[in-house]
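User: Earlier you gave me the apo prediction for this protein. Now I'd like the version with S-adenosylmethionine bound, so I can compare the two side by side. Same sequence as before, with the ligand SMILES added.
Assistant: Got it. Here's the input I'm using:
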Amino acid sequence: MAAVPSGTGRDAATPEDPRAARLRAALTDQLIAEGAVATPRMAAAFRAVPRHRFAPGLPLEVAYANQVVFVKRDRHGVPTSSVSAPDIQAIMLEQADIRPGARLLEIGSGGYNAALMAELAAPGGEVTTVDIDPDVADRARACLDDAGYADVRVLTADAEGGVPEHAPYDRIVVTVEAWDLPPAWTGQLAPDGRLVVPLRLRGLTRSVAFDRVGDRLVSRSARMCGFVKMQGAGRHADQELFLNGGDLSLDADDLHTLPTAARIEDLLRAPRVARWSDVRVWRWEPWDTLPLWLATAFPGYCQLTIEVPGAPAVPGAPGGPGSEPLEPALRSGTPAVATESAFAYLTAYPVPDGRIELGAHAFGPAAEALADELIARISSWDRDHRNGPGPVITASPADDPAPQADLLVVKKHVQIAVDWVGERR
Ligand SMILES: C[S@@+](CC[C@H](N)C(=O)[O-])C[C@H]1O[C@@H](n2cnc3c(N)ncnc32)[C@H](O)[C@@H]1O
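And here is the structure of the complex with S-adenosylmethionine:
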């Protein structure tokens, strides 16, 4: 791959609007300040690739904002393709640790991320990007050509089978939410290769960097993220339970772990029990290991979203006229637990120093016990795992003997073991 003239991408022939260069430098500085860009090589890649040429028609300020650019939606308006936000691209590419000369596969094509990968793999690297949608692949091809990255290979295919013709890959970077890990991805990695993938686990999505160890994958890091969902053979329908005609929703990996909607509505009609943990966090603090810590402990783990703000959650229940409202800690995706005898969720209240204190609200005959269990679990997270690296996540073929693990999640192709042991301070 050719050397990259700084600030112009690979297209040194077309003079650049100086505002684009200024906005690109400002975006890179912002990503460095936020910690998303952590290495000089990543900063150089972000300073080099002209993001606006992958967002044609958009104002420069929008192209260089730290936000997603939507490319395509389905007939319900749900995004199916996008150029991801720069911070998550930086985080995932840092997780990938791409070295010069690397052979790379990107799954899901927007063009821009593949160009960043080409910068990181230069000189001597090789980038292939694949998308299931021919329109998206054509768009990525055109943008890459326009910005001077004609040597990035763009293919149209369902990535369930990987791209065997250009394997093995030193790194595979998946930029679409995956519920499972098809054997082709592990099989097409070089023996010491790394897969970075937004993996759905118990209703949570984490960008997991997995190193290949034989036919297993062992995690090095996991970061919070959100992505459009996988299409094709790896598509997995959302498991959502709607309450009160859709005012509330519960999101879980598998609805079999939850009581029925009618039972949860019943539980919510009981008075609210509140417990506080003494655990205080900053709103901006990354507490992304807490949901997985809770999901590991509670088989009825799910995530609560108030779909219609202000609507009574359940007629005659808390949130109805004259009763206490539901006050989940987050606007959407608040950690919650549902059993046959109690429903509880994480709540929070602001303390004067600007932090929030975490607590539990619970409903139903076993509300007190479940609220106490949640509080105990929040306290053990605070003591043992807060600011820690999170669990080790291991994926092995689904037909291997089941490993011992703190949490075992069985998918179609792999079984995923989540282990917190050894992470205690
Ligand atoms: C978030 S976008 C990709 C973002 C892109 N990497 C960028 O530069 O920011 C996700 C893409 O994954 C694609 N996709 C979904 N399922 C796929 C599959 N099974 N195989 C290949 N691509 C898929 C979608 O068509 C969509 O374009």
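For your comparison, keep in mind: The chain has a mean pLDDT of 91.
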